[in-house]
Amino acid sequence: EAGVTQFPSHSVIEKGQTVTLRCDPISGHDNLYWYRRVMGKEIKFLLHFVKESKQDESGMPNNRFLAERTGGTYSTLKVQPAELEDSGVYFCASSPLFSRGDTDTQYFGPGTRLTVL
Amino acid sequence: GNSVTQMEGPVTLSEEAFLTINCTYTATGYPSLFWYVQYPGEGLQLLLKATKADDKGSNKGFEATYRKETTSFHLEKGSVQVSDSAVYFCALSLFSGGYNKLIFGAGTRLAVHP
Predict the structure, then answer these.
(1) Which pLDDT tens digit goes with each residue over A13-28?
(2) DSSP secondary structure letter of residue B78
(3) For A18-54, what is each residue's pLDDT tens digit?
(4) DSSP tag of B51
């Protein structure tokens, strides 16, 4: 079974540019989460999808961040325009619905390291 | 609010030394507790978890016991190896509305030398 995959693994952009991160969850996992770790600090929750619906986006920093999950499969996280403080590692995680398995355990991807210059 | 505090690193040990990484939490309700590990160049992996008070999670020689009275979930290993060098994250989750989101500590970097 393939794990959670993320693309790209690294991205270096200039302030003001746009970047789109992609996450492919484990097949069959309806829960999809985005997290971010900035400057060696704690990993913080950004948002959560159930299938294609946003359930909780309370962690999104501001309206420069837009997440989508069209069709309930892969998800994208777009940052537009990027600012210096957006630099960090963006993690995606997935888990099954409560009714279908251990929703308590989230499976993480390798992360995308974003550097904004 | 809900939060996790873990000891700052880096922690540097010699091979076969005893490891403790402290983790305490603040939470409303009854959280599940986790330790995740990130090896160099890799993503986060679940190391162990405990879902209720007095439960002990264990994996790969690591152990942690859910202590409700002290709101702690300290990670221990009796004899570390060089291959244990990684960043360790303590986390809690609260199940609500059919899903849970993780709240992490800042991470503790462990370096084990031969």
Answers:
(1) 999 999 999 999 999 8
(2) S
(3) 999 999 999 989 999 999 999 878 899 999 999 999 9
(4) -
Beta bridge partners of A43: A37
A108 vs B43, B49, B103: nearest CB: B43
Tokens standing for residue B8: 């700052």
Report the Cα–Cα distance between both ends of chain B, in Å, rounded.
41
In this complex, how many residue pairs, one in chain A and one in chain B, have their CB atoms less than 8 Å apart?
A: 67
C-alpha B99/C-alpha A91 separation (Å) is 18
Cis amide linkage into residue A81, ω under 30° from 0: yes
Q: Please give the biggest Cα pair distance in chain B.
A: 47
The length of chain A is 117
Rg of chain B taking only CA atoms, in angstroms = 14
Tell me which residue has tokens 């294609």. Answer: A52
Task: Give A93's contacts in chain B (Cβ within 8 Å).
Answer: 44, 102
